[in-house]
Amino acid sequence: MTSLPAKAGRRCHNAVNPLHSALYFAPDLARELAPYGIEDPSAVYFAGRAAALGRVGPGVVTATFHNFHHALVARHLPAVWELAAPETVLAARLRAADSMLRRLLGEEAVASKEMAEAAELALRAAEGCVRPGRPLYAALADLPVPEAPHLALWHGASLLREHRGDAHVAVLQHAGLDPVEALVSHTASGRGMNPKWALATRGWSRRDWEEAQERLRGRGLLDGDGELTEAGTALRKGLEEETDRLDAAPYEHLGAAGTERLTELCGAFTGAALASGAFPADLFGKD
């Protein structure tokens, strides 16, 4: 293993991850699942993200996804698997990723040598990931790698995203932040999903949100205006640094030069995707 510059892995993650996560905000997945009767946005999301785990019930998804209300998950699982088996959803998800990337990036980028290079680097980084304690990553790691380079990159991005995400859930647990407190504190940092989107998609009520704010104030992490205190800022900083530490293996495996190159390539692809409207304009921020 080689030593990486500070935050190199996080910078790479931030460049790679949007290429995966854009699928959950794109119309493509909903369009692919609609013929099976899966039309509710939450059902589309839970099916698409959980399919690699198999025919799981709500408990597994609530545990692994972390910041969703269990009642919302139970509203759709396991019922969604009666409409489409996990294997059917996985195939639909790959078709959706194909159409999304072609639409957001264009055919030239999809067929480019840079795309093939990025796919090779992402998959090489994923060789450094580990299964123990990382259920979402481990489930994805059991799936075959698609042959087409743009889909291989999407698969590699999925592996890297969930590897970090699994680690982050463990870090949140260790810090004693429950799902709503994690959402509130992340939003207060200015980096998380804004309250409107969090409440609309995660199943929590405004009262749940306000009660979490009060708990965070009781711990000295949030002030009266809903902003992070000095202690709250330090906590969020520490959470990311500990997640970096637990997620270092893939980027150490790839090496400093490879990590820098993957960041460069995916940064360009992500920039193009953002310019093409990959995410809602009001998704992030405090308001």
* Total E-strand runs: 0
Our estimate of the beta-strand percent is under 5%
Report the major sheet. Answer: none
How far apart, in Å, are the first and last alpha carbons?
42 Å
Number of contiguous helices? 17
Instruction: Give the ordered list of helices and strands.
Output: HHHHHHHHHHHHHHHHH
Question: What's the structural domain tally?
Answer: 1
**Radius of gyration in whole Å, from Cα?**
19 Å
From the spread of the alpha carbons, the general shape counts as globular
How would you explain this protein's 3D organization?
This protein is mostly helical. It is built from 17 helices and no strands. Helix 9 crosses helix 17 (256-275) and helix 11 (149-175) packs across helix 15 (230-246). The longest helix has 27 residues, at 149-175. The termini are far apart.
List the topology elements.
Layout lengths: L7 H14 L5 H7 L7 H10 L7 H8 L4 H7 L3 H4 L2 H20 L1 H4 L2 H14 L8 H7 L7 H27 L3 H10 L6 H8 L3 H13 L11 H17 L2 H6 L1 H20 L12
Helix pairs in contact: 1-11, 1-17, 2-7, 4-5, 9-11, 9-17, 10-11, 11-15, 12-14
Protein name: SalK
InterPro entries: HTH_67 (IPR054058)
Pfam families: HTH_67 (PF21863)
Task: State the main characteristics.
287 residues; mainly alpha
In short:
The protein has 287 residues and is mainly α.
